[in-house]
Amino acid sequence: MDLAFIPSPSVGVVHLGPIPLRGYAFCIIIGVFVGVWLGNKRWVQRGGRSGTVADIAVWAVPFGLVGGRLYHVITTYEPYFGKDGHPLDAFKVWEGGLGIWGAVALGAVGAWIGCRRRGIALPAYTDALAPGLALGQAIGRWGNWFNQELYGRATDVPWALEISSDPAVGRVGGTYHPTFLYESLWCVGVAVLVIWADKRFRLGHGRVFALYVAAYCAGRAWIEYMRVDEAHHILGMRLNVWTALIVFLLAVAYLVISAKKAPGREAIVEPGVQEEAAAAAGGADAESAEPGKTDETAKSDESGEGRPGAKVSVTKSAGGEGAGDAVPGDGAAAAADTAGGGAKTS
């Protein structure tokens, strides 16, 4: 009886003439666009300008790619700087090898630079971007499917991933746990959790981002434990498992401390947006008024002042002192009523 399984692509790259189109790269690019798109929507909902997230991403994305690659090369240096290694291969990002820990860490540095240039607080920006990061990771993980890499232990479950044999890279054919799929689905769940928690508890000051980090690390720890690719071990556990546990504890600590020191959510996330909205609203009100009529003229019309036949009446006392009130009336009749002594009101 044949087992059901998830097939792997026969090739991970298609050549369009001299131009190679790599599935891994496409997954990363699509993930970036989805993350920026969702981040922009959330930023506008929080009171920021549309386009600000993309402007800052111009700094964050390159830093993130460099950081992700550096983490991979440092923690898996043998293929590049070990015996029979090829140092130039460290630049071949398209062949796979981006560490999420380095990508987020150095990407945050790029985001910080972009935020400082715009006068924006980094925690507010990361809170808006957090669910988009999770969805971007969910899409980017499918790049491992194209490259047939980072799979789990051998298994015969119906959703097992079929891996083809490749002696050149030491890959043994068979069916394995699709850890790329597990992580992709987990990241979708993290995005949903973060969006829900943000709406339910009105998180702010970086706590949305901290929740994303903690939730991702919780899943990454057990998914990493299932993988069979070569990795450095510390006290019998893979390096990335330790990293996930440490980062998880740091994220939880930030959640607790931040909630005590800065409860609630930022009222203003981007300077000048409220003023611009108020000015735009004022301009719209002015355009809706009658041409050539000021607010004072409109008020005068409502009260009757300034109309033909309106006259200022004077209440005279015996001493000749009086006060004027504007009332509608016929001019001639009002003049006749002023005759006689004593006080008279028109």
From TrEMBL:
Superkingdom, taxonomy of origin: Bacteria
Record keywords, A-Z: Cell membrane, Membrane, Transferase, Transmembrane, Transmembrane helix
Record pathway: Protein modification; lipoprotein biosynthesis (diacylglyceryl transfer)
UniProt-annotated location(s): Cell membrane
EC code: 2.5.1.145
Low complexity bias locations: 324-338
Pfam family, one: LGT
GO molecular function term, any single one: phosphatidylglycerol-prolipoprotein diacylglyceryl transferase activity
Presence of the UniProt keyword Cell inner membrane in the record: no
Ranges of biased composition (kind: Basic and acidic residues): 290-305
Positions of a 1,2-diacyl-sn-glycero-3-phospho-(1'-sn-glycerol) binding: 141
Transmembrane segments: 23-40, 52-74, 94-113, 120-140, 180-197, 209-227, 239-257
Main location: membrane
Lipid bilayer topology: Multi-pass membrane protein
Stored InterPro entries: Lgt
Presence of keyword Membrane: yes
Family per similarity comment: Belongs to the Lgt family.
Function: Catalyzes the transfer of the diacylglyceryl group from phosphatidylglycerol to the sulfhydryl group of the N-terminal cysteine of a prolipoprotein, the first step in the formation of mature lipoproteins.
Annotated protein name in UniProt: Phosphatidylglycerol--prolipoprotein diacylglyceryl transferase
